[in-house]
Amino acid sequence: MRGSVRRSWLIVPAHDNDRLAEAASSSADVVVLDLQDTVHDSRKHEARDNIRDAISDMRDAGSEVFVRVDIELIYADLVASVWRGLTGIVLPGVTNVEQVMDADSILTDLESQRGVVKPPPVGDVREADDPRGPEQALEIHLSLDTGRGNWDAQQLIKASNRVKSISLGRADLVMDLRGEPSGDLHQMEYLMQRLIVIANALNVEPVGAWWRATSRGLVAGYDDTLQAAIDGRMAGFRGGLCMRARQVKPLNTGYTPSADEVSHAEEVITREPTYSPMSGIASDLIAWSEECQNRNRSKSIVTAQRNQ
């Protein structure tokens, strides 16, 4: 699947103005405005009130914008979230197809009421007379945070054409499936590999990183984040989630092929027949590298325009 370049997904509590300002200058490919577990119940209304302006701010900074909703409060969260500039929602803790279909139905109603469509890629301008089609529907990203959700991943993905990407919820899975004494989950490597296989089979993007058991995962330092991104890309992930703005750079770097990798791929293409598997892999790597560079340029242009 070839979609938008989304190497870094920065999750930001929607009520925290300092973190929102930090996210706007982070150069994240995607900013996920969180209405779920980083927002205390007492701050929910404040977080929802911030969403509309935050969407505009993050778009102006060159990021795509998703909102992570609370599945138990989905109607109120979606009413607060569906505005121009939104690309999609993150749906965590999904356990049955009815939840996905319910989210799809509410999104459809709100899109119609408010005239909202998925925005064009950052830096592009959509013409007023461009045709509207299913590809412009707001997306759903499924965060498969439970054993049940992972087991039924295929049915959950097929429940809505809006589902374009999926990920695992490492911390929630450890609590649901019980970790080892070290705190790690012995099934995690299997679950990540399974997620990648299912995503590729159903033509959706697998999002994640290959975190070491001793790392702090979504709040890890630079080196651990960079290594998790490199290993994740090699395994088949297309980008990773994080909770700290400092992790954006290593995720963007790790999910972008290095100059040496591109050079080696070019050598492979010159010596291998065009129909060989190695040539195909090399061509894909070069194409992905070019898409990453284009994404970086688009963000730079948008940022420069904002600062004029």
Question: Describe it for me?
Answer:
- It is a single chain.
- The chain has helices at residues 17-24, 44-60, 74-81, 97-114, 147-151, 153-158, 170-177, 188-201, 222-235, 248-254, 259-271, 277-307; strands spanning 8-13, 30-34, 64-68, 88-92, 139-144, 163-168, 205-207, 240-242.
- It has 308 residues and is an alpha/beta fold.
- An 8-stranded parallel sheet has the order 7-6-5-4-3-2-1-8.
- Strand 3 (64-68), helix 3 and strand 4 form a beta-alpha-beta unit.
- Helix 3 (74-81) packs parallel to helix 4 (97-114) and helix 9 packs parallel to helix 10 (248-254).
- The protein is globular.
Outline:
By secondary structure, this protein is α/β, with parallel strands linked by helices. Helices cover 48% and strands 13% of the residues.
**Share of residues in helices:** 40-55%
Instruction: Work out the radius of gyration.
Output: 19 Å
| Broad shape | globular
Using DSSP, what is the number of strands?
Answer: 8
Structural class: alpha/beta
Written as H for each helix and E for each strand, in order along the chain, the element string is: EHEHEHEHEHHEHHEHEHHH
